[in-house]
């Protein structure tokens, strides 16, 4: 069972790591992509739960519904910002800046919950911030677009950090049930925004676009989340934490393979972010408090 869970975790991380390439190839408004991802992913999760005879706990959902809806809305906004960032900078830069979310969680935990932060966490957080500045391309010529893209990704990270903090308030509800409602809430909240903002924006649903959109909704959301949550039940928290960083590593590698630009300075920034985040979680004090199971990937 443990070997199977390990394979599921690695597979889910590889899938999450490829989402940026797919989204960047979809010629549709980012709000529409996020909406379809939320609604499509939640429907698939519901079907998987029903087929495996694991019916959602309506009582648990009812008790946690306000937090689930608000956090779901935050997930939707987070998706839109992240997807928009792909239009202005590389997938690698967006993903790495997005992975500043754990740093924002640490800062918020200190300010809101008065949790003590060790020197190791503070040093790693500072290194990550330096890395994000370098990755943004601010020191490169003509980097305004790239900088704006990184700012959008950092905004997405802030919203996702808020989701992690809100998830700490959830009680007696399974990860599958909470994710199901959050994905449905994300799609539902984004739908009115998409209909209003894109009402006069013409776009064509070419066969390739439909295929890519379906892959993002089903593979990168429903299936990937199912693999992820199925694996974390049978693995140690630190194992989940460390291997979760396969996601940005895969994104960076794919970005380079696709020919996206990364200067030596940006490469140093990428190394600083990944190195600091991985070192920060070895061993993980924060994640042992519940962070790993609440940090739903992308």
Protein architecture, described:
The protein is mostly helical and 298 residues long. Helices cover 77% and strands 0% of the residues. The chain contains 14 helices and no strands. It has helices at residues 2-17, 19-25, 30-51, 58-85, 91-98, 101-112, 119-135, 144-167, 175-197, 207-232, 237-243, 246-257, 264-280, 285-294. Helix 5 (91-98) packs parallel to helix 8 (144-167) and helix 11 (237-243) crosses helix 14. The protein is globular. The model is unreliable at 284-294 (pLDDT under 50).
Query: Unreliable stretches, pLDDT < 50, 5 or more residues?
Result: 284-294
Q: Gyration radius, to the nearest Å?
A: 18 Å
Strand count: 0
The SSE string, one letter per element, is: HHHHHHHHHHHHHH
On the 0-100 scale, what is the average pLDDT?
Answer: 82
The biggest beta sheet is recorded as:
none
Total of helices: 14
- The span between the termini is 25 Å
Q: Could you give a short description of this structure?
A:
The chain has 298 residues and is mostly helical.
Q: Any key phrases for this structure?
A:
mainly alpha; 298 residues; 77% helix
């Amino acid at each position: 069972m443990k070997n199977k869970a390990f394979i599921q975790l690695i597979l889910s991380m590889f899938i999450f790591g490829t989402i940026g390439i797919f989204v960047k190839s979809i010629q549709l408004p980012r709000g529409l992509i996020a909406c379809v991802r939320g609604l499509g992913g939640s429907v698939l999760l519901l079907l998987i739960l029903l087929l495996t005879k694991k019916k959602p706990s309506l009582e648990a959902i009812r008790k946690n519904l306000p937090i689930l809806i608000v956090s779901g809305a935050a997930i939707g906004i987070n998706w839109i910002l992240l997807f928009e960032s792909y239009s202005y900078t590389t997938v690698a830069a967006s993903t790495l800046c997005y992975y500043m979310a754990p740093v924002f969680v640490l800062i918020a935990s200190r300010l809101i919950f008065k949790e003590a932060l060790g020197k190791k966490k503070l040093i790693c957080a500072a290194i990550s911030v330096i890395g994000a500045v370098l990755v943004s391309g601010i020191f490169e010529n003509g980097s305004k677009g790239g900088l704006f893209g990184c700012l959008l990704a950092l905004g997405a990270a802030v919203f996702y950090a808020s989701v992690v903090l809100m998830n700490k308030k959830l009680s007696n509800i399974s990860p599958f049930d909470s994710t199901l409602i959050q994905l449905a809430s994300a799609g539902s909240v984004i739908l009115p925004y998409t209909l209003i903002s894109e009402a006069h924006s013409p776009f064509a649903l070419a066969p390739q676009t439909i295929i890519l959109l379906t892959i993002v909704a089903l593979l990168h959301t429903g299936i990937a989340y199912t693999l992820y949550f199925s694996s974390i039940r049978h693995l140690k928290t630190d194992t989940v934490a460390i291997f979760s960083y396969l996601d940005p590593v895969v994104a960076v590698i794919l970005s380079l393979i696709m020919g996206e630009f990364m200067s030596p300075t940006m490469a140093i920034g990428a190394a600083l972010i990944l190195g600091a985040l991985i070192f920060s979680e070895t061993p993980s004090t924060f994640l042992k408090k519940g962070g790993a199971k609440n940090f739903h990937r992308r």
